[in-house]
Design a protein that fits this description.
single chain; mainly alpha
Length: about 160
C-alpha cells in the first residue's frame, strides 16, 4: 500500500534528466572513439566503430543507467527521510497565504512529514534500493565508473 508513495519519493520526474545526461555522456564517448579511430591508420578499426544506438543498447551501458537512476532515487529518499525526521519538511497547517500560486508552485510531495508512510518502512525500502545499487554496480563496466557510482552511493548513505 505504501509502494506508490515510496515511488513518488524517488522523484521519477528527475529520471528523464538523468537518462538525458547518460545518453549525452555515451554520445561524447562514441564521438571520441570515432575521432580517435579516424586518425589511426588501420581501416579495420574504422569499420568496427559502433553506432550510438548499439552502444546504448549494450547491457553493460544499461547497467550504468540503472545504477545512475538508483543513485538518484536513493539520494532523494535519504534526503526526504532526514528532512522529515529533523522537521525541515514539517507541513505548515496555517500559513500567511497558503493558497497563493507561489506557495503551491514550490511544494512537493512529503509523505513522511505528512505521516503517510512510517519512517521504518521508508528506511527499509531505501536499504533495499541501496542493496540493489551495490549489486548493479558490480556489473558496471570500468573501474572508474564503478568507483564513481559506489562513491555517490556511499556519500548519500552517510548523509
Amino acid at each position: 500500500t505504501y509502494l506508490y508513495a515510496l515511488f513518488l519519493m524517488c522523484r521519477p520526474s528527475n529520471f528523464p534528466i538523468v537518462a538525458l545526461f547518460h545518453v549525452l555522456g555515451v554520445h561524447q564517448a562514441v564521438q571520441l572513439w570515432k575521432t580517435s579511430v579516424a586518425t589511426s591508420t588501420s581501416s579495420s578499426l574504422a569499420l568496427s566503430c559502433p553506432s550510438l544506438k548499439s552502444v546504448l543498447l549494450d547491457p553493460s551501458i544499461m547497467m550504468v543507467l540503472i545504477s545512475l537512476l538508483l543513485v538518484t532515487s536513493t539520494s532523494m529518499i535519504t534526503n526526504d527521510y532526514y528532512d522529515a525526521r529533523n522537521g525541515v519538511d514539517a507541513v505548515q497547517i496555517e500559513g500567511p497565504d497558503k493558497n497563493s500560486p507561489t506557495q503551491n508552485q514550490y511544494d512537493h510531495y512529503h509523505p513522511l512529514a505528512q505521516g503517510l508512510i512510517p519512517f521504518s518502512i521508508t528506511k527499509t525500502f531505501d536499504s533495499y534500493l541501496y542493496a540493489i545499487l551495490l549489486l548493479s554496480s558490480a556489473l558496471v563496466p570500468g573501474v572508474i565508473s564503478r568507483l564513481f557510482i559506489i562513491g555517490g552511493a556511499i556519500i548519500t548513505y552517510l548523509y
